[in-house]
Amino acid sequence: MKIIVAGGTGVIGRSLLPKLIQNGHQVFALTRGNRSNTFLKRIGVTPVKADAMDRDAVLNAFRIIQPEVVVHQLTSLTSYNLIENARIRIIGTRNIVDACHEVGVKRIIAQSLSIACEPGLIPANEDVPLDLNAPNSRKINVIGVASLESAVAELPEYVILRYGLLYGSGTWYEKNGMIGRQVLKGEIKADDSITSFLHVEDAAQASVEALNWPNGPVNIVDDEPTTGKEWLTLFASEIGAPKPIFIDGSERGKRGASNGKAKREYGWKPTYPSWRIGFKLLAT
After folding, report:
1. Which residues are CB-neighbours of 183 under 8 A, at least 6 positions away?
2. What structural domains does the chain harbor?
């Protein structure tokens, strides 16, 4: 198929693009500049200069390429700027979906989050509503996710990938990543919040497989939701950081997520079924 990937040079995109090429697809990557052109061309991807926040540029790119499928992996996670990330999910997604309408694209695969659901005592499945009544500290993230999911659902065929917290090369969760640096300084305390993690390679593979999945949201997380006291202790040990300080309590909505639907109904199987396996590779 002829596929446009938005966010193709991001953390997931760098793993995703080669997989799409290996599966025989004709792949185009939206880019804001030319810095990644050499890498893209080397792996067989055609770069297309268009900022997703520029509606006219996106429309023009879609008119020229006439894609059959769009894979939306746009985020703004270089720094911890939730407002900018929400803007991309709201405005960038709107521009992409409008371009799909314009040229007749019927299918979209879009990155969402599994941590935006309402609070609960067990890991969330796909039927749990988004936490639209969240307090201000959490609300901007939920609004961005809700806007993205609503927009992509306008297309006849859509798959919403609700990822867990990403770890692996280029993410916050490596020794030199944002979280890694904070843990090295002892700035993060370990509590009872439950997190579902996901290795970037598993996130990329799910995007490839989702080209053939039915409509709707699906949690893409590993098999083992974990408390902050568990994962942060191992993470600190693997990167050579001090043992974290333990505190009681948990953050709103930190309940983890279930990948039962992805595994049972779609046959998705993570290469890294537990964060424990993946974290062991952080120091190598």
Report:
1. 232, 235, 236, 239, 241, 244
2. 2-165+198-222+258-271 (3.40.50.720)
